[in-house]
Design a protein that fits this description.
By secondary structure, this protein is α+β, with helices and mostly antiparallel strands. 43% of the residues lie in helices and 12% in strands.
Length: 181
């Protein structure tokens, strides 16, 4: 075991480092995800020679995202050195956080109340098209609940009643924005 340079074991340590950093850096304002891992040769009885991680860090605070990524890469360097591994990293993209205008939030709240839908303010780190549209116009988003909070997975399911209420709320938002222009 002492002769092994297992890239997957090192990557596992790095994933846990990201989780710890994001839980402790600014609780409730930062999330980090390793959503994809590629292992080579990816065989049950062969020590991993190359492991690739796709890492994403999200926050409404761009400086916090950047400093957390720096801390993460520093931890990755420490793990690599300790385990005798090589480390290569590159930034695939960077999306600036978008803060929703208070007027848009109020319009969405009123629309949900009007259709008798329960609502809550929700900070979403997801990019969606809103990140791009925000460069040219105010944006907002309405989310409808999925069973068990599951989304973007095969288990995702939303009751038709929730879809209808969400659609009605969206219509009220559009109408309100149309009359306020």
């Amino acid at each position: 075991m002492d002769l092994r340079r297992d890239s997957l074991a090192g990557a596992a340590e790095m994933v846990l480092s990201l989780e710890k950093l994001c839980r402790t850096a600014a609780p409730g304002t930062l999330v980090g995800t390793v959503g994809k891992i590629r292992v080579t040769p990816n065989a049950a009885n062969v020590v991993a020679g190359v492991t690739e991680l796709d890492v994403e860090i999200r926050s409404l605070d761009d400086e916090l995202m950047n400093s957390t990524m720096e801390d993460f890469l520093s931890d990755c360097s420490r793990v690599s050195e300790k385990r005798g591994l090589s480390l290569f990293s590159r930034q695939m993209s960077h999306t600036m956080p978008v803060v929703i205008a208070p007027q848009m939030i109020e319009i969405a709240r009123n629309a949900c109340t009007r259709v008798e839908a329960r609502w809550m303010d929700l900070t979403s780190g997801a990019g969606h098209d809103a990140n791009q549209i925000a460069y040219i116009a105010p944006v907002g988003m309405l989310f409808i609940p999925s069973r068990g909070g599951r989304s973007h997975c095969p288990e995702e399911y939303t009751d038709i009643e929730q879809v209808v209420k969400g659609t009605e709320a969206l219509l009220h938002c559009v109408r309100q924005l149309d009359t306020s222009v």
